[in-house]
Design goal:
Structural class: alpha+beta
CATH architecture: Alpha-Beta Complex
Largest sheet: 4 strands, antiparallel
Number of helices: 4
Order of helices and strands: EEHHEEEEEHHEEEEEEEEEE
Radius of gyration: 18 Å
Number of domains: 1
Length: 305
């Protein structure tokens, strides 16, 4: 754990290494009937946190260069966040040791920043020293105080980028990154007031089939707000689960696609990094969204000038 200044707000799990409690509620940004779990600060709180988190991700992407290690990126992201009084949500969440996840090549998700590969059985296609042609997913969440209210909210976003630009990639890896971005866009397009949650997974699955990619089914989107992870759970493959989106709901969509089977094993050394068993590369894209009265708004997208 880095030294956290005393004035930086921190979530409850910081000292314990625990996780979100997953209370059986879905907090809403709008009052929908007398039985809804309305949080009057939720919309402003997540907007604030998501805008900040998107800026942090943009900074992290700027650090991705030939010869840089994921540990170096993590150190600079930590400094960026703490110097602005933001707590990196992943730090000590379930004892995760980093301020962001850095998943390189055949690490499908939850990659732990480090200086070198530490799982020899699956490391033939993997190195923490970034080389041209490498792909790396940067997954960042921040816990941010909302002004004078004293309440804090999380924002969550991720993207997969190519070291040296997409020109360095094989056609197959370039296609993987394109498919994953398209899958996220399709999942977002399936959102709206009173639309079925299972439409998100169906839309993502349609894109995966079109590109000949597999979905890592165990990875899901999730509600987010005062808690890092909360309901609803967003299944990201073809499914018929019940439930529909209510205006005021906030959640992430974060499809993870791979060129291979989608099967993985967890690194027994760090307990987090998910390595594809067939050595295939994976990519993930993520946004936090708000269901509005008229559609869906992406909260972690930085507006272009």
């Amino acid at each position: 754990m880095p030294l956290i200044p005393a004035h930086v707000p921190r979530p409850a799990y910081t000292s314990s290494g625990g996780k979100s409690p997953w209370a059986d509620i879905i907090p809403l940004a709008y009052p929908i009937g007398p039985d809804s779990w309305y949080d009057k600060h939720l919309e402003k709180g997540v907007r604030n946190a998501c805008r900040t988190t998107a800026e942090c991700l943009q900074y992290a992407v700027s650090l991705v260069k030939q010869g840089v290690t994921t540990s170096e990126i993590e150190k600079k992201v930590t400094e960026w966040a703490l110097s602005r009084d933001f707590y990196p949500s992943s730090l000590n969440y379930g004892t995760f040791p980093g301020s962001l996840c850095t998943s390189v090549n055949n690490v499908l998700a939850h990659g732990v920043p480090d200086e070198y590969a530490i799982f020899p059985a699956y490391s033939a296609n993997f190195s923490q020293i970034l080389l041209e042609g490498t792909i790396v997913n940067l997954d960042i969440a921040l816990y941010v105080r909302l002004g004078e209210t004293g309440f804090c909210y999380h924002g969550d976003t991720s993207t997969t980028v190519a070291v040296g630009g997409e020109k360095t990639l094989s056609p197959q890896s370039r296609r993987l990154l394109e498919a994953t971005k398209m899958a996220l866009d399709a999942g977002i397009a399936a959102c709206g007031p009173f639309k079925p949650y299972n439409g998100i997974g169906k839309a993502i699955a349609s894109v995966a089939r079109e590109y000949g990619m597999s979905i890592v089914k165990e990875l899901v989107g999730h509600g987010i707000g005062k808690e890092y992870h909360q309901y609803p759970v967003i299944v990201q493959y073809d499914n018929d689960d019940p439930g529909e989106m209510v205006p005021g709901t906030v959640f992430t969509i974060e499809p993870c696609l791979t060129e291979g089977s989608g099967e993985y094993e967890t690194d027994p050394t760090d307990g987090w990094s998910l390595y594809s068993v067939d050595g295939a590369r994976g990519a993930q894209e993520e946004h936090t969204v708000l269901i509005t009265d008229t559609g869906v708004e992406v909260l972690t997208r930085i507006a272009k000038d």
